């Protein structure tokens, strides 16, 4: 049974009198920094000059170059994109880490795949929220938290887990539950989840459904609602009550179709592909490819991103979402009562 920590297991005292440098102010960076500050923790932001620098200043933080932020920190949380962390660590973090301080991550990629090798005299801790950064902030403001994982790779001070739990409490995660894991387990499961199910799998399922309907002559707007828009409503039911909760709300006709057709669409071939994807994550093939793609200038990444942006589902979606008053304050046609 997984070990899960809640608020009573964590003590913010372990961060008392300490300075946390959050390096990067994007999706996770802005959320974790603001949550920590609201929890009474002293936070500074490490960045390069640019868009995020200005935003972090507008949000009232002390903003410094990465090396200047690290110099004053007892805890350094690296929240830049995974693919830039190793270079920034080497050039602007490694020489300035204090002995007895903590180096933290929200994803284990660079430690697990050997891209960052911290000195032995620092704690190395993972607090990985299981949700997008903007929700880490929104849910905290609503008085709840996004669940997270905790792992300790190095326990130089003997208090690494206590410090990690204090950090998790500071970002609101102990309100939801913090599960103990390892850098290896977090890295491999997170990469698998986002590639096979949450992002890669779902996007492909949505596009294939949309293309099947539109190629058969159905209106793109109806295909959009059926294959993308309604997905959120169905996933909300799964989130609240599992698969059975979702099936309780849908019609018996939909439930029968679910049982007989789901396995045909996502069947043995898909399960075999999932096993291959997992194996390539575990044996380092995916990580090697992603690191090389960045070293070679991200040409393939950019081409794939552009092709996805140009997909007809995005064009019809953009038009439809402009009419959705609940998404868009400027919608011309507010929802009718
Ligand atoms: N996105 C998410 O919700 C989740 C992310 N994670 C993990 O959290 C970490 C951060 O991910 P995420 O929040 O998506 O990252 P983002 O892509 O949102 O981070 C971008 C931030 O990093 C800054 N940055 C980029 N390059 C540099 C640089 N060379 N020097 C200094 N700052 C730089 C950017 O500044 P600028 O404006 O100047 O470009 C920006 O503030 C990753 O390890 C990721 O795997 C874990 C769970 C969920
Ligand atoms: C699902 C994508 C994710 O793993 C996340 C939000 O948890 C990420 O890397 O962004
Ligand atoms: Mg994730
Ligand atoms: Mg991830």
TrEMBL record:
The gene is ilvC. It comes from Melghirimyces profundicolus. Substrate binds at residue 251. Mg(2+) 1 binds at residues 190, 194. NADP(+) binds at residues 25-28, 48, 52, 133. One of its GO terms (biological process) is L-valine biosynthetic process. This is Ketol-acid reductoisomerase (NADP(+)). It catalyses: (2R)-2,3-dihydroxy-3-methylbutanoate + NADP(+) = (2S)-2-acetolactate + NADPH + H(+); (2R,3R)-2,3-dihydroxy-3-methylpentanoate + NADP(+) = (S)-2-ethyl-2-hydroxy-3-oxobutanoate + NADPH + H(+). Binds 2 magnesium ions per subunit. The active site is at 107.
